[in-house]
Amino acid sequence: MPATVEQLQKILILSRLDHGQLQQLQPHALVKNYAREAIILHEGDRLPPQLFAVLSGRIEVKKMASTGKETILRTLPAGELFAAPALFGNSTAPATVVAMQDSQILTIERPALLDMIQNTPELALQIIAVLTERLQHLHQVVHGLASERAIVRLAHCIQSAAIAEGTRETPQGLLLCAHLPYAQIAGTIGITYEECARLFKQIQGIVEYSRGGKIFVLDWAKLGAIAEGSWES
Description:
Oligomer: single chain
Distance between the termini: 54 Å
Strand content: 25-35%
Radius of gyration: 19 Å
Structural class: alpha+beta
Number of strands: 14
CATH class of the largest domain: Mainly Beta
CATH architecture of the largest domain: Sandwich
């Protein structure tokens, strides 16, 4: 269905455009609904020359190794871009994109976006900033999988979720607003479901895991020590 000006404004890189500029993009923007666990893009799919963005919901970007092992590269909330190679045209999807919950995906045709960039150069800088941050994140993921112990990667994963989604005080401890099931954590840090469960048992008293992916942090200082690789059980 066609996107509205109000929907376009929800995308972070477009939020600073004025109403008239958003109206210019509107005829070239569409919104598509995806149910939870629906595949938005398959790795290797030919990408149409468009900007892809999460309008509502949350998505998961994951990569399948030749061995069949799946690694979650990133999860993205509403307002974020994905499938960046599509902006350059004649590209294929570098990873599979799945809806983690009911989601809406917004697309904008590349020619319309390029016309807007010609008149608003700062838009190009914002897109470059997003792509640079994604490359840095990918480098960190690859480096972590290759060189860090699994328990260190787990601590980083919990810290990142706390920073990105926030926490709230409870009698049991600081509860992460994001729910992180074992399967999602295991895919993110490159371990098995069973190893993930063992790691949480190893750090009981520092972090507590509750059914449904609820994570309570009981000792932030010790969690930080684990992330730095200086904690010994």
